[in-house]
Amino acid sequence: MDNKLITVRKAVTDDVLVIQKITREAFQMYAECSGTIGIPPALKETAEDILSDIKTKEFLVAELDGVVVGSVRIEVMQDGTAYLSRFGVAVENQSQGIGRVLMDYVDNLMRDKQVSKLYLHTASKILSLVRFYYGRGFYIDSTSKERGYIRALLCKSYEEGSYKENKIYGLYAI
């Protein structure tokens, strides 16, 4: 890949339709790979749902040379934890470092907001996703099958010393 510029910024109203397209592409692939039964909530999402999240959550987009190619949402809770959702990169732009750049931005944002732990769900069956999150310092907290497939709740700790421990054991790649 050429030296292309990847930037991250807060999502705005004008991003809604491209976010909806990226989310549908990414989560259609997720549903196929995970063996999801039924239609995942991400595929039922309306433009109004996205607009509401832009107003109420930390909602970030990644741009590649000025074109939105990825997005992620984070809800910061009152207890000092946060939940990451709808993380997706356009299918044609995957494996170009965009997800890594988005997650680096999320990490800095969580530290700035003094979040102690960040949680997310992913399909435990999709090895590439689990590896990606493990490489970013997440670990499996628990699993469930309430959506018809094995879904892992992952956690990343931002508490003092947690990175050092992960670096020692090679679980966190910089």
From TrEMBL:
InterPro entries listed in its UniProt record: Acyl_CoA_acyltransferase, GNAT_dom, NAT_camello-type
Keywords, sorted A to Z: Lyase, Transferase
Source taxon at top rank: Bacteria
Protein name as annotated: Bifunctional argininosuccinate lyase/N-acetylglutamate synthase
Annotated ranges, domain N-acetyltransferase: 6-165
GO molecular function: lyase activity; N-acetyltransferase activity
Coiled-coil residue windows: none
